[in-house]
Design a protein that fits this description.
By secondary structure, the chain is α/β, with parallel strands linked by helices. It folds into 2 domains: about 120 residues, 2-Layer Sandwich (ornithine cyclodeaminase, domain 1); about 170 residues, Rossmann fold. Helices cover about 35% and strands about 25% of the residues. It has 10 helices and 15 strands. Pfam families: OCD_Mu_crystall. It comes from Kushneria avicenniae. InterPro entries: NAD(P)-bd_dom_sf, ODC_Mu_crystall, ODC_N. This is Ornithine cyclodeaminase.
């Protein structure tokens, strides 16, 4: 059994086409029915404003599977500690023995989450998309654009965040990271989204931010902030206006994602699963004027896919 730390993992895993293909293969296997994926195990630690999520999946035929433990303790910054942490344990799918512990401190989760957004855009956004609107100014706001640039030639980013100073700092980081990238800070969501080809929501909001009135014909929306029962980013009008609504898994979207707004009632439109879209090799109802929306809650198959990819690179 080998133990790898974050520094070692960062040296071999980054946002690149090979990592994207590994995560996309995991989604494809899920869509083909080749994945065993139990529900998320989630536990609140209320007295410390914390929570712990455990995710796992096995892709049939793979040599390994991973179990991810992801704690979030949201008062930690007050004492100089990060709010998010975690690790992935990689097991042999033949013997059940532990092959490696990837003490990535949440790095691989950040990477696979960003890649899932890029995969959604690859299959749902117009191929000539050039302009992205980003709602939020945290880690994923940066990584989602970096990953999106793997699949679309993005040259302009429009950003809105509740904290204008954070939005300005985000814009400065993005200009420094990507030569020639135009980054505009906006004072409201409507103006940030007005000319967008792709909209990415990356917030922990507990009430809807994005509304149908913010959407132009032909836009694609990736919503990745709602990953627990209390979070929401999309107004109902966004989902009902979409020509195609896609989720990573329907079950998770109904409990943790945007579909939970219907709370056991009939959803008034068809919700496609991204793995099935990828496996079919064709995307539902996409044209110049169609609006597409993808709700990402984060799946165990993404964790197994990126952990297996990381371990192969670490042992190459």
């Amino acid at each position: 059994m080998e133990l790898y730390n974050r520094t070692q993992i960062q040296e071999v895993v980054e946002l690149d086409q090979a990592a994207l293909e590994a995560v996309e293969a995991g989604f494809r296997a899920l869509g083909q029915g080749r994945v065993v994926q139990p529900p998320i195990l989630s536990m609140a630690i209320e007295e410390s404003n914390g929570e712990v999520d455990v995710k796992t999946a096995h892709i049939r035929g793979n040599e390994r599977f991973a179990i991810k433990v992801s704690p979030g303790f949201f008062d930690n910054p007050l004492i100089g500690l990060p709010s998010l942490n975690g690790l992935m344990i990689v097991f042999s799918a033949k013997t059940g023995l532990v092959e490696a512990v990837l003490f990535d401190e949440g790095y691989l989760t950040d990477i696979r989450t960003a890649l899932a957004g890029a995969i959604a855009a690859k299959h749902l956004a117009r191929k000539d998309s050039r302009r992205a609107a980003v709602i939020g100014a945290g880690v994923q706001a940066e990584l989602q654009v970096a990953a999106l640039k793997l699949v679309r030639d993005i040259d302009t980013v429009d950003v809105w965040a509740r904290d204008t100073d954070r939005a300005e700092a985000y814009a400065a980081r993005m200009r420094a990271r990507f030569e020639g990238l135009t980054v505009n800070v906006h004072g409201d969501i409507e103006s940030a989204c007005r000319e967008a080809d792709v909209i990415i929501t990356t917030t922990p909001s507990k009430s809807p931010l994005l509304k149908a009135e913010h959407l132009s014909n032909g836009v694609h929306v990736t919503a990745m902030g709602s990953d627990s029962p209390e979070k929401r980013e999309l107004d109902v009008s966004v989902m009902t206006r979409a020509d195609a609504f896609v989720v990573d898994t329907r079950a998770q979207s109904e409990t943790n994602g945007e579909l939970k707004v219907w709370a056991g009632n009939t959803v008034p439109f068809e919700a496609h699963e991204m793995g099935q879209v990828i496996a079919a090799g064709s995307s539902p109802r996409i044209g110049r004027d169609q609006i597409t929306v993808c709700d990402l809650t984060g799946t165990g198959v993404q964790d197994t896919a990126i952990a297996g990819f990381a371990l192969k690179r670490l042992t190459a």
